[in-house]
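ESCALATION

Customer reports they have been waiting on this structure for their group meeting. Please prioritize. Original submission:
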Amino acid sequence: MNHGEIVSFIWGVADLIRDTFKRGKYQDVILPLTVLRRLDCVLAPTKGAVLKANAKFKGKLENLDPQLRLASGFAFYNTSRYDFERLLGDAPNLASNLRNYIQGFSPNMREVLEKFDFDGTIAKLDEAGLLFKVLERFKGVDLHPDRISNPMMGTIFEELIRKFNEALNENPGEHFTPRDVVHLMVDLLLAGDEKRIGKAGVVLTVCDPCCGSGGMLTITKDHILGTPDRQGINPKADVHLFGQEVNPETFAVCKSDLFMKSADGRDAEYVLFGSVLSKDRHEGRTFDYLIANPPYGKDWKRDESEVEAEHEKGSSGRFGAGLPRISDGQLLFLQHMLFHMKPPKDGGSRVAIIMNGSPLFTGDAGSGESEIRRWILENDWLEALVALPEQLFYNTGIATYVWVLTNRKAPARKGKVQLIDATSFWAPMRKSLGDKRREIPPEKAKEILALLRACAEGEHCRIYPTTHFGYRKITVERPLRLNFQASTERIGRLDNESAFAALATSKKKNLNTKAKEEAAGRELQESIRAMLRTLHADLHRDRGAFLAALTASAKEAEVKLGAPLQKAILSALSERDETAEVCRDADGNPEPDPALRDTESVPLAEPVEEYFAREVKPYVPDAWIDAGRRDRKDGEVGVVGYEINFNRYFYRYEPPRPLEEIEADIKVVEQDILTLLREVAG
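Update from on-call: job pushed to the front of the queue and completed.
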């Protein structure tokens, strides 16, 4: 049976359970039983040997585990007398026997299976009279690795999980990475490291901090060691896999699959459960290669307190560079991966991560996202950015980008970033899978890889210094110019000023006192209005002169104006006027007008004063730079920001069609409409 037939066969179980389980709960039945059947097929040849060893050494050895592993040929085993064949032979006791069978697994595999929380599902199937039918269905499919290879099984699991995600429609930001994309990412990750990987006796570590069903880890290992269908870089390399996964079902799928890939189960041992953002299960370790596809646009609220505590550690913590907005944690995963790079003196590391466009440009200068980009670029870790075609993923058609990073750049790449536009390197799929309508075939992947290796300017490639993506955001101020007039209309605006309106309100609880204070306040309000009418309705274009007149009038009317009231009066009686005199503070300096405040982004390579003199001063001669707004790191004027607007560098202008052609098309459409109207009118 091929991949499609097996998926259809297993998915056909849904026909049996559709009246008992909601569509979103199908995975509670299908995923654990798929894993159990796979394990059952794997252990079948040595089942007798395990039972014999268990009977022989039980009660004689304190630790049976080594003998039972030896008998099974794997790092796990099952000591229950049941298998799928025997379970179906005792239908009346099927539920209890199935539980006995699951309990018979070795502790390491039982820990994995417990993540499925299958006991409740067994009870529900049993009550509905479906348990026998479902197990019988699974017994009919042979999932032994000799029949279904580990890579194919991984693809089957991901296809099933994709269908479950479509049914649930609850996690649109979590996308399982198609195999064509993973193969390309691994090629980009390992590019240029062939000599390092090819060394005799080399030991390599690979980590995926959000490993899902383990596809990226296993494909990376396959690219290094080789497979029957693919030549590896070094078949004798010693490759160790490490991972962490927060979803219990995909964790169980990943770990059980890795247990079956080797006799010692070494790789499975280092795939650990839990949220990597709140709990780093590989703390203290560094890795040669790190690869991941974190969830897009998924918030990190559940990990907020732990992430913020880690951020407070500064450079000694994983998130010291900055915190992105709470609604999107992609850059947290990237920081985590960079934190786990080996120091350059120990050989350094390479990193490949795929994310959507948001981490490239979201966030203004000084924001968490910008500071993370600044940290990466100022450390010269970003080697290349590859823009992939749209419609590559199962659950979304959005644009994605592969970031390739390293702390041991080749000399020719130091201080540079390579941008690769691979959006046109795709082929249509014969049959769409969800939103996946395109794929990157091997020949297209080779072309993309060749662009990375060549590192040369061209139609699909741009190379820029790291500082090219940085800028200083300066604040440009212009002077405040106001005119003042004590007209009836402007005096009426006083009621909208909070300091003036507050005169007629009291917070006293005693009603008599409250009433007296409010009456006195209303009387003062009226006195102020009367005093302002004595100023006449002349238009003043000098705030200093008007303030002097206001002070004199208030003194003559014996009205005491505190600072809040004076400010309220000036606000109500003023309007912006370009012909008015500049308003100045007590030291004689011009006051800025908040309404005219603007910002400019100055390229890092250019002095701020030169840019301002060329781009701003000729057009607004009275403008000045707010020298008080400085970068918190270097102390210079302007806040440093970094962004990578990828599309800007590959924009191709397409001129509109000639007007004659457009006009001709319009006439044809008009003629068609007239013809239709004549037919309708008879």
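Sent to customer with the following note: The chain has three domains: 3-148, 167-472, 482-576.
Escalation resolved.
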